[in-house]
Amino acid sequence: MKKIGLLVLLSFFTIFTRATTVSIHIYSDRTFSSVIMAPAAGNYILEGNYRIIDSCSLTNVYEITVFNDSLIQVKNLDRVIGNFTRLHFRGYGPTNQYYLKPSSEKNKHLFNDDIVITAEKGSLKLLSQIDIEHYVAGVVQCEAGLRKPKEYYKVQAIICRTYALNNLARHIVDGFELCDLVHCQVYQGETHNPDILQAVEETKGIVLVDGNNQLINAAFHSNCGGQTINSEDVWNKALPYLQARQDTFCIHQPAANWKKQLTLKDWQTYLTKKETNLKKSPIPSSHWDSIPDGRKIYYYDNGYLIPLKDMRTELNLHSTFFTVNSDGDNVTLIGRGYGHRVGLCQEGAIHMSQTGYNYEQILHYYYANVQLINYSILFN
Ligand SMILES: [Zn+2]
Ligand SMILES: [Zn+2]
């Protein structure tokens, strides 16, 4: 009994004392030669080329400007502190926050923890060095939006945390871990939303793993239209936890239905062009017709099989789940869902949380045979 008690105590100790910092390239799609930085809370010191050059009071406002292409000049008000190749605002209080306003931006944004600034080709490069829980809160706001149920924010927090930890090597050649764009996850600084902050705190460290204790590819999309699809049908890779399932929770939600009208001529031209590069399918049409629309991965036309994922991109459709109705000189595509339809359906998950399901039930509904664990177990 005593041994078990000690083990439990030790694992709790490890879980709750470990903080993981991630390196995020912020404002990664902008170029700017100057940025204003002002500490907003906590305690900061400023290091230039790895040596302390200033202790920052909360009234300080720093102007940081590219100098001679790859050097950075730091000013506090009008006093030049010096020129460096690398700046590090290092927080050492219990909570450290600062404002940033690059010269390319209209508004300042609030960020947590540390920032490292370098210059490349005449532009500043800002790398936020941030506790993963602070980062997840900011990402949840961007990916889930405001005015959602707190239970849903917990779902999104676990997905975003899992995604971040599973993709830390994505930008290894660029000298950071994640960018702040859709390519990784959208991140625009901190959130003040109390529900998001609480949801992140209440799921602190929790991630999704598969049967081999590997972090999962926690794919999600806006609305599946009532039927999610297998990962292999979109990305050619079968993953046991990303399997097709019916979803009754999203079918009355805002992105559940769509329509697109094309002229009959444009539609036929498109099909003919696609078919010139294809061979006829030897399998009879009755086979393809028997697959429900939500599970189809090909559009069957005149003996040819056109991949629906191509059609979605090339015709700019909300989803691959649609039927085609001819109407004189026009063709109307009547569709359901929005997005790739693999993994978690956001609008379904929101509706589940509104009707009393908890975050664990929601995650298990969309991801098959997964477990929720604290990520510190994986890295010990
Ligand atoms: Zn990226
Ligand atoms: Zn759905």
Lateral strand order in the biggest sheet: 4-3-8-11-12-1-13
Low-pLDDT parts are: 1-18
Decide which structural class fits the backbone. Answer: alpha+beta
Mean pLDDT: 93
What integer value in Å does the Rg equal?
A: 25 Å
Task: Assign the CATH topology of the domain at 21-130.
Answer: Tumour Suppressor Smad4
The counted number of beta strands is 22
Strand content: 25-35%
Bound molecules: zinc ion
| Form type | elongated
Q: Report the CATH architecture of the domain at 21-130.
A: Sandwich
- CATH class term of the domain at 21-130: Mainly Beta
Describe this structure in words.
The structure is a single chain. The chain is of the alpha+beta class and 380 residues long. Among the domains are: 110 residues, Tumour Suppressor Smad4, CATH 2.60.200; 80 residues, no CATH class. Strands 4-3-8-11-12-1-13 form a seven-stranded mixed sheet. A six-stranded antiparallel sheet has the order 7-6-5-2-9-10, with no helix packed on it. Strands 16-20-19 form a three-stranded antiparallel sheet. A hairpin with a 2-residue loop joins strand 6 and strand 7. The longest helix is centred in the middle third of the chain and has 17 residues. It is elongated and about 75 Å long. The N terminus is likely disordered. The structure holds zinc ion (2 copies).
